[in-house]
Amino acid sequence: MLLKFPSYDWMKNYLFTAIMFFFTISSFGQNLIGYNYNGIKKYMKENRKDMNSEKVINSAYNYIKYSDSGNSQTLLFFLNRDSICTSIRAVCDYSIKGEKVKEFDTIYKRSDTNKWIDKREGKDYLVEIRDEKWSFIILIEPSK
User: Fold this and answer.
1) Three-state DSSP class for residue 107
2) Which of 58, 62, 89, 134 pairs as cysteine with 79 (C-beta 3.0–4.6 A)?
């Protein structure tokens, strides 16, 4: 009796899927507060190929918007008048909440339930998860 091994194509597809899944769940942790408009665009193009830039017209707020093709994550980078990022908001599907909590526990210092502190360049940033009815929101902003 001959044993049949999985084809190389199956293994290649499995590995690609596993890598993309890991990249998707572990790549939000980068705090881009302080980056300028071009710096954010460059970072996203090089590091978040799974996210698509969306054109935004809003007279009240200046921000850059990205979303993934599955609509499980939307990232908003809020900019000041000088086009410097002052806060970040991510709207995420509940299916990835557990992975985000685990990710934040490994890269930030937990300060409370659903709250972490990111210490970077002598400044503290609050990272918070807020539950909403249909999704959860991740906020990153300077600590007050």
Assistant:
1) helix
2) 62
* CA–CA separation, 100 and 25 (whole Å): 7
Q: Which of 63, 96, 65, 100 is nearest to 80 (CA)?
A: 63
Rounded CA-CA distance 58/41 in Å is 18
- Residue with the two structure tokens 């710096």: 39
User: Can you give the pTM of this predicted structure?
Assistant: 0.77
Phi then psi dihedrals of residue 100, to 5 deg: -65, -40
Per-residue confidence (pLDDT) for residue 7, from 0 to 100: 52
Tokens 């900019």, residue?
79
Q: What is the DSSP string of 16-34?
A: HHHHHHHHHHHSTT---TT
Gap between the Cα atoms of 94 and 48, Å rounded:
20
Burial status of residue 64 (CB atoms within 10 A of its CB: 0-12, 13-18, 19 or more): buried
CA separation (Å) from 81 to 4, 50, 77, 85? 63, 28, 13, 10
User: Token digits for 111?
Assistant: 């300060």
Q: What are the C-alpha distances in Å from 137 to residues 49, 58, 80, 122? A: 21, 20, 21, 26
